[in-house]
């Protein structure tokens, strides 16, 4: 499983990227960045009614031969992208949604830290531990 958290627009630079295993990491970075266009398309297609909701689970953004790419956007326009190997058929949609909620809650905890400057890369042991445990469940 691979994970990317992207900052809110217009910057769209990564705040946190984690990849297990680490081979083909450049391909993973490319996949995360190219998925942003699909995220923006889905958000605009949903219209204002969906944007007013508290959270936006975008579901499967697109499948490739090797990966399935899922997306999630918070109400503050922070984009979460998760890339899972296509060979993993055990993951259901509700499990992916639950993983995104955990990520969102942990991200919220980081944002509540008075020593964190919004927009800085995420360096948090608690966040790393949560991501590691989540990735161990998937792999």
UniProtKB/TrEMBL annotation:
Gene Ontology BP annotations: endoplasmic reticulum to Golgi vesicle-mediated transport
Listed InterPro entries: Longin-like_dom_sf (IPR011012), Sedlin (IPR006722), TRAPPC2L (IPR044760)
Coiled coil: none
Keyword Calcium appears in the UniProt entry: no
Subcellular location: Cytoplasm, Perinuclear region; Endoplasmic reticulum; Golgi apparatus
SUPFAM superfamilies reported in the protein's UniProt record: SNARE-like
Gene3D superfamilies from the UniProt entry: 3.30.450.70
GO cellular component, one term: Golgi apparatus
Superkingdom to which the source organism belongs: Eukaryota
Main location: cytoplasm
Key words, A-Z: Cytoplasm, Endoplasmic reticulum, ER-Golgi transport, Golgi apparatus, Transport
PANTHER family xref list: TRAFFICKING PROTEIN PARTICLE COMPLEX SUBUNIT 2 (PTHR12403)
Protein family (similarity comment): Belongs to the TRAPP small subunits family. Sedlin subfamily.
Protein name: Trafficking protein particle complex subunit 2-like protein
Gene name of the encoded protein: Trappc2l
